[in-house]
């Protein structure tokens, strides 16, 4: 894994590692950078192998510059192989991009090599870049014994890039339903009651990164405010876009209406207070927070992208809208003003959660 920051894939990895049978498996976790808020949640049985001891280490910077500017990977390869020296029955790169690239330096060290894909690869937002060239990405995936996708749509989009799907499979991310539903008692209306004096509580959750497109909801909030509607928007998460988000909130005069709550672990108590859950992502492979919102019975508005569409049953379990900001505005406006619509989609979310996760 690249690091253990506060993203969805990192959260899934922690869940998996905390459910291994350590009487049967000896597990090591290689982190290209030893960093992240989930480090203290690793089970003690996991041996952590940092390739770079801290963010911004000199070797890391030099290796990245050589690769991104000149295509020379020898320093990165040496850095990985000097600390990962043993043979393993299996090596897994748990994400695309950087984790996959460093796995590519260690293929001969694994009896089996597997790689997980947590994104819509066709979007090309997080894979092919200075981190990993298209040529090297293709070489790495073709070298794997198995490529695992977190949704059928993610698998389909991978195939559209011309990659073979013969060695692929789909494994949905684990959802801790029992843990999530412990927080149902802290919920507010969940779409079934009129708005409180503070208005409708709209919740979003995820990393403050460009792919989540939370800035669109800030601009939508400005329009809704001008309509005289009463609401709060609470965004749970942390990330590199915080500064831009804070500046936009101040610029549009929305302080106290749009609130950046920061990272919460777990986020379920705050999510459960919501009346509406919104996902305005540009792309998702398997939107963990949408699934969690379904388990909490929250009415959901989500932009159409492969993962959102799949988990919401292509509109059966949530209100899907196009990527156009006007469509997002119209849908959120309807949810704020219509108690019956919130109640309808709250029931649909519960139905979806029961269908997907009743046996977990």
Contiguous runs where pLDDT drops below 50 for at least 5 residues: 191-195
Q: Give the N-terminus to C-terminus distance in angstroms.
A: 26 Å
Give the overall silhouette: globular
Order of secondary-structure elements: HEEHHEHEHEHEHEHEHEHEHEHEHH
From the alpha-carbon coordinates, what is the Rg to the nearest angstrom? 21 Å
Compute the number of helices: 14
Helix content: 25-40%
CATH class membership of the largest domain: Alpha Beta
Q: Which percent band covers the strand fraction?
A: 15-25%
Q: What is the count of structural domains?
A: 2
According to CATH, what is the topology of the largest domain?
A: Rossmann fold
What would the average pLDDT be, to the nearest integer?
A: 91
Beta-strand segment tally: 12
Which superfamily, in CATH terms, is the homologous superfamily of the largest domain?
Glycogen Phosphorylase B
Sheet/helix structural class? alpha/beta
The side-by-side strand order for the widest beta sheet comes to: 9-8-7-10-11-12
> Which second-level CATH architecture of the largest domain applies?
3-Layer(aba) Sandwich
Main beta-sheet annotation: 6 strands, parallel
